[in-house]
Each structure stands twice: as structure tokens, then as C-alpha cells.
Predict the 3D structure of the following.
Amino acid sequence: MNRGNRQGNRSSTVLGRRLGSELLRLRDASGKTQQQAAQVISATNSKIVKMEQGWVPMRDPDIKALCEFYGASDALVDRLLEVARVDRERRKAKGWWNQYPELRSLVEYVALEDIAKGVRTWQGAFVPGLLQTPDYARALAVGNADWDDPDEIERFVEAKIARQARLTDGSPLALWAIVAEAALRQLVGGRDVMRAQLGRLAEAAEAPNVTVQVVPFLAGSHPGMTSAFSIVSFAEPGAMDVVYMDTTSSTLWLESEPDAARHNGTFGRIARSGLAPRDSIALIGRIRKEL
């Protein structure tokens, strides 16, 4: 489990740890020591440790020198440099989300979503936040009973809706959302709220950067039944992905390449269990009419 960590006046970020783990993997695979790596960039062993643990922002010359020393491919070096650039932007960003303490554990996720290229999300119990209507988001917040103050609930809803600007900004987020049929039939907020929410889903799916799929009851057992998760991409799909999972008691980031690969595989299998996008929208329409 990885939360926002701090060491002195430095912070460990999700992308920093992801980048550091790649450098550590490359160093181990090449058989080099921390001392040898430190000599290559004229640094101390301590700096290599901090880099590999994601505690400090990384300079492009250091990444290039280390990757050359470790024998990394040019393609991998380019990916690492891109992640390093995004991480530096993330560390100095003062985004709108910082105005909303009501986001709580979602703050780091929203900050990364703001600079991501794509998100693939699987949800079995509710409609993904990027596609929620205000009334649906409000009903979820009330049902979760995490807040006693109505004003705090409204601020939380406002922040969740503000996230959706990423779907229509100058460089729109590519969203692939897979939702279980059960989430579409759960009467969150009542029939009127759900009719509007299902309409919002169908409308959002018309955008070229949004794909919506539904896993129907008839799909039977499938790989997504035991958990929900989101895969956040900062380059082409599969390159330097991180996985986000939110539970009732904790926030979990999975930052290693094997974890990302495993969840990408699981997402693909869930997608194959679901209806095609066109058939998914047709099912959403039928459920909406039933309401």
C-alpha cells in the first residue's frame, strides 16, 4: 500500500516511485551497484537511494546517463523521460483540487488524472466518477454516510463534477469505462436520479474519447467480480501505467510493471465479458425505459 509519503521537505509521489522502481529494476538487471551508479552521475549513494525510492524529482541528464550505463533501450529511455517530466509537473502543480479537502484520499488520484493521457476503469457497484451526474454523486455521498455536514457533501460533489472537465478540455482524457449491469440497476437516489444518470452515460459515450461498456448479468462469472480498479496511463497504453484501488478503509496504488501488466490483462478479459459499446448503450437505454 502506498500513500502520500514525506521525508523532510521532500515528498514521494506515485510517479516518482514508479520511475524509481524502473531505475532500480534496470540497475539490478545490469548487475551494477549503487556506488557505481552514483559515480556515473557524480552523486552520492544516498542520492541513488532517494531516486530509486521516488523521493526526489529526477533530472533528464541523470536518467539518460544511468540508462546508458544500465544498457536500457532508447524506447524505454524515452518513456522514462516522459514520466520524469510529468512527475516534475505534478510536484510543482497547484491545481484546483487542492481547494477541496473534502476529496480526502482522492486528492492524489485527481491530481494524476489531471495530467494523464488515459484512464481505463472497471466498476461493479457504481457509475465511475467521471461520468456521474451531480444528483447521483450527491446520493452516493449521502449513502456512504462519510459526511454529517451538508455543505461538505456539496463541496465534495462540486469537486467530483469539476474532474469531468478533463473529458472535454484541449487535450481530452481518453476514458474507457466498464460498468456492471448491477450498478445501472441500483436505485441510487431514486428513479428520477437514475434515469438522468443513465442518460448521462449514453450521452457521454457519444464522445470520440469515451468508451462505455456494460458487463451484463448474463455474462456470468468474470475476472472483475472480486475488485474494482482504475488504470492511469501517462503515455501509450501499457507504458508506465499505475493502478489505483479505493476501498472502504484505504487507498492502494500498485506501481510496479508486473502489477500494471496483470491489471491490464484483467481489464482486457473483463472487456471481453462485456457487451460491445453499441450493445452496451442499447442495454442502458432499455434499463432507463424500465425506470
Residues 1-10 have pLDDT under 50 and may be disordered. The CA atoms of residues 219 and 273 lie 6 Å apart.
